[in-house]
Amino acid sequence: MTRILRIAAAQSGPVPKNETREETLSRLIRMLRKAADQKAELIVFTECALTPFFPHWWIEDEAELDAYYDSVVPGVSTQALFEEARKLGIGVHLGYAELCQNTDQKRRFNSSVLVNQEGETVGRFRKVHLPGHAEHRPDNPFQNLEKRYFEVGDLGFPTWNAFGGVVGMCICNDRRWSETYRVLALGGAELILLGYNTPDHIPEHPELDRLVDFQHQLCMQAGAYQNGCWVVAVGKAGLEEGVSQIGLTSIIAPSGEIVAQSKTRGDELVIHDCDLDATTVYKKAMFNFEANRSPEHYRAITEQRGVKTPESVQ
Ligand code: ING
Question: What is this structure's pTM?
Fold first, then answer.
């Protein structure tokens, strides 16, 4: 019996600062209902889907900063979304800024949660690769203060049996690091879900601006192919508080092919029937970790590393 999973990648357009949480949530619920109309079984929302991507600006007031975080998701602030999803029988991936408050300290993470079709929480992830900087760079047109507003994720790259397969998550910059996919695939991942907020301008390296779309796709296509995984990547797109962000929400097959992609930079559903058995030829033949890759292979390489390169090839 083939394992077809109909997935809706729910790209968010800009979330303005003056949009209320209720208005933002109602936009997500609108996409959820459209996904249900098309019989989707899982909807994937983006990174920090509940708020503007506030790491793009300098915030000194702690109460102002705290307003962008949620402590419990699913919880009171997102109940309308998760209740509707349970009623519709759709699983949910949601990225959000997580505030862990215990007696003596506040901990902050860039997080995502996976909830199944019965409304049960399957698992959580906390972003590991935090790009950008911790200090204010007033000369930049916008900031990327994830190192100031989040801690490095402390949950690793877990995988879970869900939706008829093995599922893992990562967030935004994690997708650019090859080990993200390999660690998830070593954990059995067949499907990797992620959200991102990716500006189309890199203040420190404008020479790379022309490659932003290409490199966004390159890292995920390679990661999907080299690890035999589906990758569902969902953007927060469009001009958000002066920051122009790419769209290109994509569903990528284990072959590395982009099989579905957004066409706009607004709220947009990208839906695809993902055959989880399409991972098999890659996991069992092209990239068979057990047969073609082992600690012995790498021991040989490291031992060679001790060998001095002959003069002739230096
Ligand atoms: N954002 C960006 C990302 O897509 C970035 C940061 C932009 C890195 C462009 C490199 C090039 O990784 C987040 N939120 O990680």
Answer: 0.95
